[in-house]
From TrEMBL:
PROSITE patterns: D_2_HYDROXYACID_DH_1, D_2_HYDROXYACID_DH_2
Keywords: NAD, Oxidoreductase
Record-linked CDD domains: LDH_like_2
Protein name, entry field: 2-hydroxyacid dehydrogenase
PANTHER family: 2-HYDROXYACID DEHYDROGENASE HOMOLOG 1-RELATED
Keyword check for Metal-binding: no
Record GO terms (molecular function): NAD binding; oxidoreductase activity, acting on the CH-OH group of donors, NAD or NADP as acceptor
D-isomer specific 2-hydroxyacid dehydrogenase NAD-binding domain sequence ranges: 112-299
């Protein structure tokens, strides 16, 4: 039986991996801690694979120790791989696989949920009614029907988001270097990046973070937008210059902000810090605005996506253990 050691294992990871149909082929060792140089020696010498998540650090040093322990596979149960030294993995002959896509609809639907919470203030209504306050003062919203929605990046998630917003009766405009022909024929007008910023009442970010587009949303680009724009970011925190956005919120240039990602999220997200003093003043300032909604990188977190993550991950490890080759899209080395 092949042994798989998990890092950053949360109760929901344990549950979805244990109930996967391939689970009886493996022996799982679930560790709650993040993987890094301090803990890599905890990996049992008999482990065939190490299964890691977004905040585990697979540096060259860590990979070197894994190689000495005869680990053959690093299985990332996520799409991103910026936390893995792929060259070191190649050098040590360790195969690295990932889950390239897991339910794009999950992320798109969460972006819509954030928008609907902000525009109809359901989060405030929920608390208010629980206190027997049925007044409508302060709950005035706006219709999505008829509004122009600007989408940056129309890959798998952006495409799903465009289709939902078109269903709401919105005009959907988008910018992507590689326009999607199906979307263009169905419901989306492709424009330049600046035109999308100028025309959008609501802007939603669905492109990856790259060296070129870091701080895509900054003081200069915010100035191009309609006063009172709503911005939703479920992609990566680094796409937004948070301090510039805070300034624009104070001035009312941005009317609503919904973020599932944050540039300094590594120190906060996926942890229960409810009894801690948080030293990050920027996130505290953001959370103090009544028109800002923050969720902790949960857009992907649906039953369907979690089942798919477990399925793709175990299938890849299973194939590699038999000497077979998983799909090219899954393999990084
Ligand atoms: P994808 O690769 O299918 O699509 C990305 C699209 O963005 C492509 O069409 C590409 O041409 C376009 N693009 C790249 N740079 C751009 C730029 N500067 N301006 C405009 N368009 C640009 O990726 P997918 O699956 O749709 O994911 C998008 C992003 O969503 C991921 O990169 C990730 O950051 C984020 N994500 C967030 C999750 C969450 O739980 N919050 C979960 C999964 C992904």
């Amino acid at each position: 039986m092949f042994k798989v050691t998990f890092f950053s294992a949360k109760p929901y990871d344990i549950s979805f991996f244990n109930k996967n149909t391939l689970s009886d082929k493996f022996q799982f060792d679930f560790l709650e801690t993040h993987l890094g140089p301090h803990i890599v020696n905890a990996v049992d010498d008999g482990s065939f694979a190490v299964c890691a998540f977004v905040n585990d650090k697979l540096t060259s040093e860590v990979i070197g120790v894994l190689a000495k322990k005869n680990v053959k596979v690093i299985a990332l149960r996520c799409a991103g791989f910026n936390n893995v030294d792929l060259n070191a993995a190649r050098q040590y002959g360790i195969r690295v696989c990932r889950v390239p896509a897991y339910s794009p609809e999950a992320v798109a639907e969460h972006a819509v949920a954030m928008l609907l919470t902000l525009n109809r203030k359901t989060h405030k209504a929920y608390n208010r009614v629980r206190e027997q306050n049925f007044s409508l003062n302060g709950l005035l919203g706006f219709n999505l029907h008829g509004k122009t929605v600007g989408v940056i990046g129309t890959g798998k998630i952006g495409k799903a988001f465009c289709k939902i917003m078109a269903g709401f009766g919105c005009r959907v405009v988008a910018y992507d270097m590689v326009p999607d022909a199906e979307l263009a024929s169905l419901c989306v007008a492709y424009l330049s990046f600046n035109e999308v910023l100028q025309q959008a009442d609501i802007l939603s970010l669905h492109c990856p973070l790259t060296a070129e587009n870091e701080y895509l949303i900054n003081a200069d680009t915010i100035r191009m937008m309609k006063p009172g724009v709503s911005i939703i970011n479920t992609s990566r925190g680094g796409l937004i210059n948070t301090n510039d956005v805070i300034d624009a919120l104070k001035l009312g240039q941005i009317a609503y902000l919904g973020i599932d990602v944050y540039e300094q999220e590594e120190k906060l997200f996926f942890k229960d810090l409810s009894a801690n003093i948080i030293p990050d003043d920027t996130i505290q300032r953001l959370m103090s605005f009544p028109n800002v909604l923050v969720t902790g990188h949960q857009a992907f977190f649906t039953q369907e996506a979690m089942a798919q993550i477990a399925d793709v991950t175990l299938n890849s490890i299973d194939l590699l253990s038999k000497g077979s080759e998983p799909d090219a899209a899954v393999m990084l080395t």
